[in-house]
Amino acid sequence: MLDEPQQDAPPITELSKGQRRVLGTLLEKAFTTPEAYPLTVKALTSGCNQKSNRHPLTEYSEDDVLEVLDQLRELGLVAVVHTETGRTERFRHYMRKRFTLSEPQLAVLTELLLRGRQSVGDLRARASRMVSIESLDDLREALRGLMEQKFVQADGDLQRRGVEVDHNFYAPSENKKVAWNAGLDEDDGRRTETTAPMRAAGPSSLASASPPNAARATERQPDFAAVSQLREENAELRSRVDSLESEVTRLKGLVDDLVRDLRG
User: Fold this and answer.
1) How many independent structural domains does the chain possess?
2) Is the CB of residue 151 less than 8 Å from the CB of residue 168?
3) Under a CB-based contact definition with an 8 Å cutoff, are residues 125 and 140 in contact?
4) CA–CA gap between residue 27 and residue 93 (Å, rounded)
5) Which distant-in-sequence residues (6+ apart) come within 8 Å of 99 by Cβ?
6) How does pLDDT run across 4-32, given as a tens digit for each residue?
7) Backbone φ and ψ of 17, nearest 5°
8) Which domain holds residue 48?
9) Which of 93, 124, 136, 230: disulfide with 26, CB 3.0–4.6 Å?
10) For the CA atoms of 246, 16, 125, 191, what is the dihedral angle to 10 degrees?
11) What is the pLDDT of residue 253?
């Protein structure tokens, strides 16, 4: 038997840290381990506290998680599943009932709830372990829809290299609103530093440099395209490691449930 969300559930504009972690974990496990979903409180607590794909790390108790689950049920974001035996309650999220979101948008929100602010490249690599996001353009399309609904914020134009995004469910007291930075350099992804000496010196001082020195300065300029590609490849490798660690955590939860059932 499954709870139904409240018809008069309040609009959602912010979530506490605990609510974000519990909801994000339910979303993630629904995507990555559907055979073990909905989750028991024990499995959900383990998922909230796992060491991979989480920031910051937490040490929630089962009582902590139960308290947050009650809060999320009042918001219409979580439901309890009553099993036929009635011995173990399981919990599932109701994000699809409370919001109009595509699957890529739901995966993106999941990663942002679990990790917070991150680059577009890292976000694509991590969200792709849950649903297929073929390209950065596909990710940007999902992000634009989320930004239109005020669920996501960014520190610059999504087309610019180096832009970072975050969810928009912070409480005002957390002071986590992302400042729009119009100084992102479109060529290399670096933020423009208006007080940097090279910027202040102007073109005339650069023109006075001797040709050999100018050539050496050019040689020292890093290949930002290559750096960006390496970062994306590194993020993808981290995502694969996170997926393996999540699978180990899931298997441990299943073994714990089996042992408890055998002892009961």
Assistant:
1) 1
2) yes
3) no
4) 7
5) 149, 151
6) 555 567 789 999 999 999 999 999 999 99
7) -60, -45
8) 17-99+241-263
9) 93
10) -140
11) 61
- Give the predicted TM-score (pTM) of the model: 0.69
Closest listed residue to residue 142, CA positions, set 178, 184, 107:
107
The answer to the question of residue 128 being in a domain is no
DSSP 195-212: T-HHHHHHHHHHHTS-HH
Q: Please tell me the total number of residues recorded for the chain in this structure.
A: 264
Question: pLDDT category, 180, cuts 50, 70, 90?
Answer: confident
Nearest-angstrom CA–CA distance, 201 and 193: 13
| 38 CA to centre of own chain | 21
Classify 129 as helix, strand or coil.
coil
Asked if 127 contacts 108 with a C-beta cutoff of 8 angstroms, the reply is: yes
Alpha carbon of residue 80 to chain centroid: 24
Banded model confidence at residue 262, pLDDT cuts 50, 70, 90 = low
The answer to the question of residue 159 being in a domain is no
pLDDT digits (tens, 9 = 90+) for 87-102: 789 999 999 999 999 9
Rg for the chain, CA atoms, rounded: 23
User: How far is the CA of 85 from the CAs of 34, 38, 128, 217, 259, in angstroms?
Assistant: 21, 15, 36, 73, 17
In a domain, 43, yes or no: yes
Averaged pLDDT score across all residues of the chain: 80
Residues 59, 35: Cα–Cα separation, whole Å? 25
93 pairs with which residues across the strands?
A: 78
Q: Is residue 219 part of a domain?
A: no
